[in-house]
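TL;DR need structure tokens for one chain.
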Amino acid sequence: MFFGRHVGRRLDADFEEFVTARSAGLLRLAFLLVNDRGHAEDLLQTALLRTAMRWHRVREQPDAYVPPPCCRRWAGATPGASRPGVPS
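>> reply
TL;DR here they are.
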């Protein structure tokens, strides 16, 4: 199971503040990557979940950590598929 030992854990108040402050901008980034609101929300939720599980390591510079998983997830989602704005 993906969640494993993280199920039922309370979120750190700093993480909640980070999500409140940065989620709109991160959603815009995700939308630019996938050009679909629903997929962008899924992409962002996955990136934030991974960030929450590693918060103790990335809390000092979360902006440096969150976008890369978001981009990696997008790049690995559909290998070889054409993406808007990306030459084949």
